[in-house]
Amino acid sequence: SVTQLPGPSFHCRANEPTSRRPWPAHWTGHLVVDVSRQVSKSCGDLIFSSHTTFILTGVLAYNEYGSLLVVKSASWMLGVVLSILIVASRKHYTVDVVIAWYTVPLVFFSMYRRWTTRRPMTDFIGSTTSPAI
Prior knowledge:
The chain is an all-alpha fold.
């Protein structure tokens, strides 16, 4: 397609026979997911990085609900290292990972702060009376 980047892996280059899937022989072929091909020969689903989305969601969730500062710091450092390794392993382009680093925190904090009426857990921890809601 015009708006999608080609896959960063070697088997996704335009002159490789594995870069394009042949059309299915029957219409049911559009409904069946070929898991073996997606694991080893996937050339799509790039912008933005779903790997980075999963990592950052875990990091942000622990930073909101976790209590150990050492684990919070280690999770951020591990998130950065894993993002670099995702690009180095040619699973995603740098732009895919950078867009995920912008998008995931924006969505996470929009959901947590703006679209929920639930109060932060820190309002309830250590209080002897229930807070006014």
